[in-house]
Design a protein that fits this description.
33% helix, Rossmann fold, 15 helices, alpha/beta
Length: 491
């Protein structure tokens, strides 16, 4: 290809921690100005392709490489990292590991700091990106105060602030609400129009089909389709009449309130606050907690598990105040999966990680049950691997197993589908449904409304730190649709 910017020629790479190559015998090119989407199952090799383009396989990861990867006809290993940083902007999948400064402004400005830009030019470029991404309200905040979706927007701003020729993005729409997904997609469209070369690694490629130049599929490290047919299915999923059914809380029933929240308030200084949150979550129900990035979902999660203390109000489990429970009691009763799995790993092997909570609370471990869980999750061959060496999707499944293995009464899941392909999303959904049948109460924070709507009994909407909606999914979508129409009219 005459105008090829990137070329993979018989390219293979095996991490020293793995027996099999992560990618094998890749042969394809990416042209200047092309918009390429790489899709495939969890652990298929998508992130490794990104790492190779960034030169990380040469300078950061230990492994065995065969073949070549050329950037502008030069072997990537012969290009210094400082030169690569001028050409390529990167949006990583694991955000917290990539941030280098504590504040939003300084993080976006960081790629410019060690280059020959004046202070005035840096400020001008940062503010231009901030305006394009509509993140002016968070520009002065600390990164550790942001929601994961807001962090995603900052990472994208950091990747494009230096006007790179090539942009590599690993799951850039993960953790974003519908409004910000559209904003980012529009940003990529504008970058494409400017002649930028864009490479996206993702499980969900349908959202890119209208403007992607090509979609290739990779499975088991090998390309299985170099010109994937990008048709969006029009099949209407059949749903159970029970899905999204509103609970009639007024009539007399034998339903048990598992979690009771009364007049709950919390604030981070004067920059964000939860105000007057009151709701009941019933035993054996699946509840979806939804809302825009920065609406307070993850903050509420941290309050529910005791990581944050309310400024006012109370949280009760089975009518017992949460603050009166010891950490051991909280651990026995509540399982949690955070958005970033790496923050939850403490052991050197995956199997030890799965058994960690049971060992700490001295719960009996049934080996046969563990074997079945690990096999069904697709992690059987990885149980002796260090958790931090796994792919993001594998880490997601491991953190889920670690949270549910001791059979807690309440499970709280924050963006559990991030990094999971359809097969593994289905597996997680089946586990959740089975837990519900056994009386487990499940609270799921998610932007993936289609997936969560298939199993949720109730939707709770948060907006600017307050409850804006309680009811079934169809009523929530109707409310949202009316809100968006109103916004459009005002504009």
């Amino acid at each position: 290809m005459k105008d090829a910017t990137i070329s993979f020629n018989n390219f293979s790479f095996r991490y020293f921690s793995r027996e099999k190559p992560a990618v094998f015998n890749l042969n394809f090119s990416i042209s200047k100005g092309e918009f390429l989407v790489v899709t495939g199952a969890s652990g298929s090799g998508k992130s490794t392709i990104c790492y190779s383009i960034l030169g990380l396989l040469e300078n950061f990861y230990e492994g065995e490489k065969l073949g070549e990867m050329l950037l502008k006809d030069t072997e990537i290993s012969n290009i210094q990292s400082t030169e690569l940083s001028k050409i390529i902007g990167y949006v990583p999948q694991r955000l917290d590991n990539s941030f280098t400064t504590p504040y939003v402004f300084s993080e976006i400005a960081f790629p410019l700091e060690y280059k020959d830009y004046t202070k005035e030019e840096i400020v001008e470029r940062v503010h231009s990106v901030v305006e394009d991404l509509n993140i002016g309200k968070i520009i002065g905040r600390k990164l550790n105060e942001l929601s994961e979706g807001e962090k995603q927007l900052v990472a994208i701003g950091t990747a494009i602030v230096d006007n790179p020729e090539i942009i590599v993005a690993d799951e850039p729409l993960a953790n974003l609400d519908q409004k910000n997904k559209k904003l980012i997609l529009d940003t990529f469209i504008q970058l494409k129009k400017k002649g930028k070369t864009i490479i996206i690694a993702t499980h969900e490629y349908a959202e890119y089909t209208q403007f992607a130049s090509k979609v290739i599929r990779i499975e088991g490290g090998e390309i299985t389709d170099e010109n994937l047919v990008t048709k969006v299915s029009a099949i209407v999923r059949k749903k159970s009449n029970k899905i999204g059914r509103t609970e009639d809380e007024g009539r007399k029933t034998d339903k048990q309130v598992k979690v009771s929240i009364e007049n709950l308030s919390f604030d981070f200084s004067d920059k964000f606050q939860l105000s007057n949150i009151s709701l009941n979550i019933y035993k054996g129900k699946i509840v979806a907690l939804v809302g825009d990035n920065g609406s307070g979902k993850t903050t509420l999660l941290k309050l529910l598990i005791g990581l944050l203390k309310p400024k006012e109000g109370s949280i009760k489990i089975d009518n017992v105040d949460l603050k009166s429970l010891s950490w051991t009691e909280k651990t026995k009763r509540i399982g949690v999966v955070f958005q970033d799995p790496d923050k939850q790993f403490f052991e050197e092997t995956s199997i030890d990680e799965i058994l960690l909570i049971s060992n700490n609370i001295q719960k009996e471990i049934i080996s046969e049950n563990i074997d079945i869980m690990v096999k069904n999750s697709g992690l059987k061959e990885l149980i002796q691997f260090n958790p931090h060496s796994l792919s993001h999707g594998e880490k997601r499944r491991l953190s889920f197993l670690s949270a549910i293995q001791h059979q807690p009464e309440i499970i709280i899941l924050d963006e559990i589908t991030k990094g999971l392909d359809d097969k593994n999303k289905s597996w997680v959904k089946d586990q959740i449904v089975n837990m519900k049948k056994n009386g487990t109460t499940v609270l799921i924070i998610s932007h993936d409304w289609r997936w969560i709507g298939e199993i949720a009994d109730k939707f709770i909407g948060l907006e600017n730190g307050q409850i804006s909606f309680i009811g079934p999914k169809n009523q929530f979508e109707t409310k949202l649709s009316k809100k968006n129409i109103t916004r459009s009219i005002k504009r």
